[in-house]
Amino acid sequence: MSIVGKSAHSAKFRRNRWLLTAILSLYFIYTFLPLFYVITAATKSNQDLFSTFGLWFAADFQLWENLETLFTIQDGIFLKWMANTAYYSSVSAIGAALFATFAGYAFAKYTFFGKKLMLALVLGAVMIPQTALVIPMFLMLSNLGLTNTPLAVILPSLVFPPGVFLMWAYIDDAISNELIEAGRMDGAGEFHIFSSIAFRMLMPGFATVLILAFVANWNNYFLPLVMLNKPDMFPITVGLAQLYSTAISGTGGVLLFTVVMTGALVSIVPVIAAFLIMQRFWQGGLGAGGVKA
Amino acid sequence: MTGRGVKARPRNRVIVNKTIAPYLFLAPFALFFVAFLIVPLIYAFDISLYKKAMVGGVRFVGFDNYTKAFADPKFWEGVIVLFKFAFLQIPIMIATALVFALILDSGVVWAKAFFRISFFLPYAVPAVIATLIWSYLYGPAYGPIGQTARFLGFEAPDFVSPEWILGSIANIAQWQFMGYNMIIYFAALQAIPTDLEEASVVDGASAFAFATRIKLPMIVPTIIVTVVFSIIGALQLFTEPFLIQNMARSVINSNFTPNIYAYNLTFVGQQPNYAAAISFLLGGVIAVASYVFMLAVNRRKDR
Q1: How far apart are CA A197 and CA A182, in angstroms?
Q2: In this model, does residue A184 exceed pLDDT 60?
Q3: CATH classification of B72-302, choosing from 1.10.3720.10, 1.10.357.10, 2.40.50.150, 3.40.50.720?
Q4: From the CB of residue A37, how many other CB atoms can be counted at a distance below 10 Å?
Q5: Mutate which of B26, B190, B237 to test chain A, going by most A C-beta atoms within 10 A?
Q6: Which residues of chain B are within 8 Å of residue A289 when distances are taken between CB atoms?
Q7: In whole numbers, what is the pLDDT of chain A averaged over residues?
Q8: How many other CB atoms sit within 10 Å of the CB of residue B274?
C-alpha cells in the first residue's frame, strides 16, 4: 500500500483493519480451541474429563499422573512408539528428500530421452489410491517375509513424488544454467558440479522437502496400520488409535480416555515446535512449489 | 561464488558426461518408484484377475471382479459418500483459504505473521490425532460443544449421526488443511510484482477491487492445482471415518468409503482379489473426476 492510498482513505482503512482483524481472530479461536482442549484434557482425571467443562482446567491438576500412566502402560510402550515414529520418519524423510533432490535436479537441468514420460508417470502416481498400492505391497512384502519390520514402512516411503516436483521447481529457479555451463567450461564433471556448486544453492529447497517428507511420514497411518501388527513396532499414530479404540470399546479401558489425550499432547508438541523453529523453510518452499506448479 | 570450487581438480576422478548424468541422478528415485509403485500396481492388477476358489488356490476369472464391482451397490454407495463429502468440504476450504490469503496479502490487518503461522499449524497435527481430538470434542456427554450448548439452554446435534457425519468429517479436514492451502495462495500472491500494485493505487482502485479483480485472476493456475490435489485427497478418504467408526458403528459401516471397503475386504473378508479390483475402480473414479474438473476449468477459460 502506498502512502497516497492510505491517507486518502484513512477512516475507511482503519475500519477495515478492525473488521478484518476481527474475522481472522474468530478463525484463530476455531483453530486454537481444539489444541487448547488437548492441553486441558491432559491435565484432568478421567472423572473430571467427563464431569467438568471441557475448555477449562479442573481443580484437580493431574498432568503429572497422566504422563506417568502414559509412559508406564504396557511396560512403557508409548516411549517405544515415539522412538519408532522418530526412527521411521527420520530415515524415510532423509532418504526421500535426497532421492527427490537428485531426481528434481535431473528434471530441472537436463534434457534427456524419456523425460516427458517419466514426469507424466510421477504426476499420475499422485492419483493412485493408497489402498491400490499398500494392499498389494503388503501381499508382496509378506511373501518376502518383510512385513512387521521397519523396512516395510521405510522402503515404500522413500518414494515421495511431491518432493520431486518441489525440487524440480526450486532448482529450475535457484540455479542458473549459466552457472552449470561455467562449471563445465572449467572441466568439472556433472557430479562434481552438483556436489560443489548446486547442492549448496538448493539447500533451502532440500530443507523444505525434508520437512514435508518428515511430516508426511510422521502423519502416516495407513501404511504402518497395514504393514505392522506387533504393538511394540507401531508408530504413535497406530498406537494411539489402538489405545483410543480400547478406551471407547469400554472393555475395562475407560481409564485410558485422558491417557489418549495426554499421548496426543506429547506427540504434537515436538512437531509444532519444529514447525515454529523452521518456519522460514516451509513458508518459502511451499510457495515455490505452488507458484510454479 | 561462480568460480570457486568449480576448478577442475587435478585428482583422478570419473567424469560423468551430460548424456548419462540425468539417468544416474534419476536412478535412486526411479528404482524405488518402480519397486514400490509400478510393481505393486502390476501385481494388484494381476491378482484382480483371479478369484479364490472354494477348494485349493485361486482361479483365473478375467475381468469378472471388475464386472462384479461395477454392479456392487456397496462400492457405489461409497462413491456417492465421497462426492457428497468433496462437494461439501472443498469449496468451503478453498474459499476460506483464498479470502484469508487475500486479507493477509493486502496487509490491512494486524499481526499478519501470527495469523499466517497459527492457521497453518494444524497441518502439523497427524490426521489420526486431529480425528481423535475432534471426536472428543464431538462427544455427546463430555464434549465441550455439547456442554456449551446445554449451558446456553439447547441441545447440540449428534455430530456422528447419519445427517451430521459428513459435515463433522469435513470440519476436521477444514481445520487441518485450510492453512496449508492458504499458505500456498499467500506465497503466490506475494510473488506478484509490486509495481502492478502501485500502478493500480494511482489509478484509484480500492484495495478490495484490486484484490479480487487484479490479484485473484493472476493466481488461478495455483488455485486449480490445489483444487485437483484436494479432489484426489478427498476421494481417498479413509483415516477420519475409519477412526470415528469407533464411536459410530451404526453410521459408518464396513463400506462407508471405497478405501474402507477395500481395506475390510482384504483384512476382514479375506478377498484381496476383489479388493484389488475395487481399488482400481476407485483409481479410475479419481482420474475421471480430476479430468472432468480440468476440462470444465479449461472450457471456462476459452470462453
Answers
A1: 11
A2: yes
A3: 1.10.3720.10
A4: 21
A5: B26
A6: 184
A7: 86
A8: 25
